Amino acid sequence: MSNVTKGSDNVFKDLGFGHEEAANLKIRADLMINLQKFIKSQNWTQAEAANFFGETQPRISNLMNGDIDRFAIDKLVQMLSQAGMEVRIVITSQVPV
Asked: Where do the domains of the chain lie, and which CATH numbers do they carry?
């Protein structure tokens, strides 16, 4: 019989990444997922998405394949803005203020 352990809200933290790196990876992953959903909702080929975003097809391939290391937060925010999406950041404190 297997033991199941409930994870946190950040899979990267659960995988052992440090707090700061896990937070950065989670943000990038969330932004990438939204871009992937947008591209799929448009029924675009990677070439069509590349043309829309002013990127290369291999770069869109990286995005669609979730190659998180190739994208910075600011680039993903810029692409989401180009797609007409508003990005909002919510900051919560884990330490009493």
From this structure: 29-82 (1.10.260.40)
